[in-house]
Write a structure and sequence with these properties.
Elements: E1 5-11, H1 14-23, E2 33-39, E3 58-64, H2 74-93, E4 97-100, E5 104-107, E6 110-122, E7 125-135, H3 152-156, H4 162-181, H5 185-194, E8 202-207, E9 210-219, E10 225-229, E11 232-236, E12 242-243
Parallel strand pairs: 1-2
Antiparallel strand pairs: 2-3, 3-7, 4-5, 5-6, 6-7, 8-9, 8-12, 9-10, 10-11
The protein binds biotin (BTN).
Length: 248
């Protein structure tokens, strides 16, 4: 991962750029990475916009071809990628680093990064997976309306080389991707759970316009969040549940 690297000054979104490359006839090798200094239409999950100060943060997309897993197993790919990012940042950030379900990267209660995974499914197989990753590295302030994200610079009080963090992330993603390929699913699922933000802690949630306290007890094989509330475990898909805290 990352051997074939395309560095762009400016692009709408590296995910879009990579998807355009795929729809042109020339084959794109697995592991290709597109990185951009500036995205003028960076995309987040659930149709959100992804903002980053030009040149300060990591914004890139990488191409994988996980045809060995079925579309029903997509969440194991999400887990593997999240763990790759987590392991790459762990030496810098240690135990306050967490994966917030489904695939946000958190430091304490603040968002440090996120990913947008777009899988192209054809003939019952994942033909290609465009994995867009944004990590706040050197940004020194964030617009008020963006919630309360955080950057590595704000945490550690120094700038970091984007290339260096990129190459760490690529090599750890590769490691977890190979575990996925080898079918080490139990290991991947256990490790994902061990890194999960607010696992087994009381937290305020909202679902269906109802606010309730509950405790995350796990995630199902296909990636639904399992929340225990009032002695009952319930499953939630993305969009069905919201974490309520001031930093959402
Ligand atoms: C999220 O947390 O909502 C996901 C953010 C994903 C942002 C990255 S930046 C590189 C890639 N290109 C995009 O347009 N989005 C992803």
């Amino acid at each position: 991962v990352g051997q074939n690297l395309v560095s762009l000054k400016e692009v709408d979104s590296t995910n879009n750029y990579l998807k355009d490359m795929l729809s042109n006839s020339k084959p794109v090798p697995e592991g290709t990475v597109i990185m951009a200094e500036t995205q003028f239409a960076g995309r987040g999950q659930q149709n959100n916009v992804w903002h980053a100060q030009p040149g300060k943060n990591l914004t890139f997309s990488l191409l994988l071809k996980p045809s060995f897993i079925s579309p029903q197993q997509q969440f194991d790919l999400t887990r593997a990628i999240s763990l790759g990012v987590y392991d790459a940042l762990y030496p810098l950030l240690r135990d306050r680093l967490k994966i917030k379900w489904p695939n946000d990267i958190y430091f304490g209660d603040r968002k440090l990064g996120g990913m947008l995974i777009e899988n192209m499914i054809q003939g019952g197989q994942i033909k290609s997976s465009v994995i867009g990753i944004g990590i706040n590295v050197n940004q020194d302030n964030f617009p008020v309306e963006s919630g309360a994200p955080v950057s590595i610079r704000q945490i550690l009080q120094r700038d970091y080389e984007l290339q260096q963090i990129l190459s760490q992330i690529c090599s750890h993603i590769e490691g977890w991707y190979l575990k996925l390929k080898a079918g080490n699913l139990t290991f991947i699922r256990e490790k994902y759970l061990a890194c999960l933000y607010r696992l087994n802690e009381e937290h305020l949630f909202r679902s269906n316009n109802q606010v309730f306290t509950g405790e995350i007890t796990g995630a199902t094989v296909i990636g639904q969040l399992v929340v225990l509330s009032n002695g009952e475990e319930k499953l939630y898909n993305l969009k069905e549940i919201e974490f309520l805290n001031k930093d959402k």
